Structures are given as C-alpha cells and as structure tokens.
Prior knowledge:
The chain has 221 residues and is an alpha/beta fold. It has helices at residues 10-20, 54-59, 75-87, 119-131, 209-217; strands at residues 2-6, 25-30, 45-48, 67-70, 93-98, 115-118, 137-142, 147-153, 174-181, 184-186, 199-204. It has a 6-stranded parallel beta sheet with strand order 3-2-1-4-5-6, with helices on both faces. A 5-stranded antiparallel beta sheet has the order 7-8-11-9-10. The longest helix is centred in the middle third of the chain and has 13 residues, at 75-87. The chain is elongated, with a radius of gyration of 20 Å.
Amino acid sequence: MRVAIAGAGHVSRSIATQLLGNGPxxxxxxxxxxxxxxxxxxxxxxxxxxxxxLDTLVEARVQTxxxxxxxxxxxxxxxxxxxxxxxxxxxxxxxxRVNHPKNEWLFNESWGVDVxxxxxxxxxxxVEEAVSVGDLVRLLTFRQGQANLVELTLAPDADxxxxxxxxxxxxxxxxxxxxxxxxxxxxxxxxxxxxxxxxLLLVATAEVEGELDVLLTSxxx
Length: 221
C-alpha cells in the first residue's frame, strides 16, 4: 500500500509514523522548506513542493497511491488536494482534515472527499462521551455522511442490561461492532449478554440514530 500525505506538520508526521509502523509506504508533500523535517520521519519519502499543483501530484505519482490524506492546516488547500486526487488521479480513498467546523459542509463527495475528520468535532465528541452515560454520541462520519460511528455507555437501568445480543432486534442499517468493558475490547456474539457500564460502539446511518437512541436508552420505568 502507498499513502501520500499533503502537509508535513505535527499531525501529518504523526500519521506518517503510525502508518509506517504498519507497513505502508508513505510520502509526505510539503511546500515550506522550514517544515521539511526529514529526520523526524526518516523512513518516509519526502517531496518539497506545493500539493495544490497538478505537476507536483504527477511527480509524486499520486495515481499509484491507495490513499491520499489532505492534512494541512488550511481547509482550502485540503479541498483542492482532495479534488485533484479524486478527479485527476482516481485515488480510491481520499481522507481530509477539517480545521474549522464552519467548513465541514464542504468536505463531501463533490470535493472528492471520502472521509473527513474534524479535530474540533472529535474533541467535542470525546468530551461528551467522557461525561455521558445513557446518551448516544456521534464520534465519526464515514463515506460522505452515509454512516456514522456512534457510542453509548449502557446505563444500569437500561432495558438491554442482561439481554443477549442475539435476542435484540437492531434497527435496519445499524450494527454493533464492538463492546468496551473493563479495559477490554469484546467482539459481539449472539450469545453474549450486555452489562451495565458497557461502552457500545455501533455503525449506523443518520436516519436510524433516533431508533437506536430509543432502543439503547429505554428503561423499565
């Protein structure tokens, strides 16, 4: 696998380091010479150039990349890189960083973005998740809003406490993908029973989040 990352700031270098530890080839594209800190990620490829320029992406052989990550601190740059990667080079997977929440609506299929990651939204979701028990929290959006990763910590008085997963009728277009319990990650099985305090991670479309919320938060009262 080959991954190109536009931008070489702290975020991009951290992404590159994590990816290199898992096997992919990684190329970092940076236009500012002072940000070209090759020694921080020595195993990556580096290119000093403007990722918004078509010639740069040709030189970078973006058409050979499985994933392009637009991770600069400028939303305009991230949108241009995403659009070029998708429309000019046919990259299968384009991931874009959203720096300012007011720009989130732009990061969609029209601009070539497959997955957008908003740092402010993620931070807000983490804070909300940390203080919420019994409330459905949206953590991440996939594929131009077609599905969301949502989380709920099961309250002690929830109807589902003690129920086996296989006995629960989950809404269409939703799936329980993992349970976090006492520091462990549990793969859901039909015979497994839910316990109070379980942190449930589910993937669901926005249309059924309301049904999920009712199912997961209903109590015996």
